[in-house]
Design a protein that fits this description.
Elements (H helix, E strand, L loop, with lengths): L7 H22 L6 H13 L11 H11 L11
Amino acid sequence: MSVPFVDLAAAFADIEAEVEPVLHDLMARGAFILGRELIEFESAFAGFCEAQSCAGVENGTTALSLSLEVLGVGAVLPPYN
């Protein structure tokens, strides 16, 4: 079975006009982590999920590990390849 790759160039073309000024602003400010955009996203996503809070993390492994820890699963040992 062949699974086609996502055409990121086409996807970006659809939102380029909206995203470009935001990316330019981020780069000009050097605000790559812990900026106001993250705080705004966390607040909006918490509201969307009807949660009290939200924490943005660096990758999916960390997100899953934190989720399992909060649920009391115990030690989380993700595979490393």
